[in-house]
Amino acid sequence: MNNYFTLIYLTTELNAKLRNAIFTHAVTWRKNILDIFFESDGAETIKLMASTDRQKTALFPDGMTSSRKSNVTSFFETLEGKSVDRISLSDNDRLVSITFKDETTKLVFRLFGTDPNVLLVDEGLITESFKNPDKNIGQPEPESREPRPVPFSDTKGPLKKRVQRTWPLLPRPLIPRLIGHFDLEQKSDAEIEVFFNKAEDELRHNGEPSVIDGYQICLLPESFFNPDNRETFDSVNDAVRTAFFRDWSANRLENRQKDIREKVSRQISRLENLSKQASKASKNLERADEYEQSGHLLMAHAHLPAPESEVISLPALFSENPEEEINIQVKPGKSIAENAAWYYERKQKAERSWETAMEYAADVEQKLEDYRALQKKIEAADTAQKWREFMDDHKKHPLIDESADQSQQVRKAFRTTKAGKYEVWIGKNAKSNDELLRASHKEDIWLHARGVSGSHTVIRMNKNQHDPDMKLIHQVAAWAAFYSQARGAETVPVIWTRRKYVRKPKGAAAGAVVVDREKVVLVSPSEPKYDYL
After folding, report:
1. Is residue 414 within a helix (H) or strand (E), and if so which, with residue range?
2. Where are the alpha helices (DSSP H) in 169-235?
């Protein structure tokens, strides 16, 4: 952000602004960001912002002069009350120094390399460091690196690399722009050398602050280089500040886009898997009749001894050919009747699987279509403006609405389904039961199998104080019974009450509660059909 030529003009502007100003304090509130506050003779507060992110170093006075009061760490407290004497830039390197009037103390801004930093130097030694203090304190004041340009005629390789070696102080992001804009690949070495010597001279002596591509600093005067998207500023500081915050916002936008893209991709993958499951369930239904027929054949021969092998051959009773036999896979050691029961159970599971799949298959396909359309819109939003428009149009979408996303995060702790118009939460384990209890509302209906361990179950009442009908209570109670140690019983007593009458004693084990005003229903355990979407 602050290339060497930018810093030439910036130090001039800083001298006009900060000379004789009083250092008041310096704080950090975000990684790699340091805010340094001064007070001028006219009691004006000036904030100097330094970024030591190696991908985006920057130094500029920030017009927002308020100082954060919480979640901050202070630095360089020994400078408080000292007056600024001058701001200087080292020869041919990005080392900016603020020297104070005692002439022995200075703040040094190292705005290059893999370890950019802000250092407090006293009598030539580093006494405090914004980053990596163990590595820096006690070390000598950093020295400028002398650039070692190579004559252009001695360079080889791509033109961009050749230019960097001959003119090492030129802003690197600007070089490919100039090569393309002026078609320099087609020029002779002599013409290229004249061009970049002229460019360097213009940058050093005739700089005009501007921003191109939204957040790239350019000091070349308009008469020398004037791209279509050039935005001019009155000062280098204004240009740097604008470019920095635009770049920062763009990076935040990119991270937000990446997050939403990944969420949409995950939803598409999940829905595609559900679609495959629905297709698989349909195929299983085709086998339900086969399972039933095998069960009937086995029951017709229930008098036979338990099979010793995994396959048994039986007469095809339902075939027109009485001599035909059918091979049936069985479980060795189990009786014929037990194997028949196993086939009947497989038939029932196949039918239940198909029924469940058919209930959500249409919704899955519709949602899959919707998410694929959303994915295309995300890819089409390839500019900041388009992305803002996309976000405005879809701000209530559950994957974009942050409040909905937080709610979804809470619900991941439980199983979630629906009974009629009501959402139902079912705990997964003791810890999940505690989380469910904390997240539920006092007017929700709470259920639990009586006298045995099991999942806490809640009917979300949306603050409604009227009880749901008893049919719905029985339905959800059957689910609570299914997720308990009494799952195998024919009937199970299940207690229910309002959530406000359930409390967790201090120090009680996970999942343990005390219940008041309980009511009891007797139900047969049954597994809920989940809201897969």
Report:
1. strand 414-419
2. 174-181, 189-205
Ramachandran bin of 367, using left for φ above 0, alpha for ψ from -120 to 50, beta for the remaining angles: alpha
pTM of the predicted structure, to 2 decimals: 0.55
Res. 423: pLDDT tops 60? yes
HSE-CB for 360 with a 13 A CA cutoff: 23
Q: Which residue is listed with tokens 């802000």?
A: 118
Q: Tokens in use for 303?
A: 């008098």
Q: Tell me: the pLDDT tens digits for 146-171?
A: 888 999 999 999 999 999 999 999 99
398 CB-near residues (< 8 Å, 6+ apart)? 404, 405, 408
d(CA 26, CA 308): 84
- To the nearest 10°, the Cα dihedral for 361, 366, 370, 371? 10
Residue whose token pair is 């029924």: 355
pLDDT (0 to 100) of residue 91: 87
Helix (H) or strand (E) holding 263: helix 236-300
Q: CB-hemisphere CA count at 13 Å for 339? A: 28
- Which two tokens mark 83? 């007056």
Q: Is 406's pLDDT higher than 80?
A: no
Contact present, 209 and 219 (Cβ < 8 Å): yes
Quote the distance between the C-alpha of residue 128 and its chain's center.
35
Segment holding 217, helix H or strand E? strand 216-218
What does the block give as tokens for 465? 């104080």
List the beta bridge partners of residue 62.
47
Which amino acid is residue 113, in one-letter code? G
- Quick: pLDDT tens for 460-494: 998 888 888 999 999 999 999 999 999 888 899 99
The closest of 176, 161, 367, 341 to 266, measured between CA atoms, is: 367
d(Cα 314, Cα 312) in Å, to the nearest integer?
6
Rounded Cα distance between 518 and 521, Å, is 10
Structure tokens at 435: 């989380």
Q: How far apart are CA 220 and CA 177, in angstroms?
A: 12
Q: Return the sign of the alpha-carbon dihedral for residues 276, 278, 280, 286.
A: negative
CA 15, CA 11: separation in Å to the nearest integer? 6
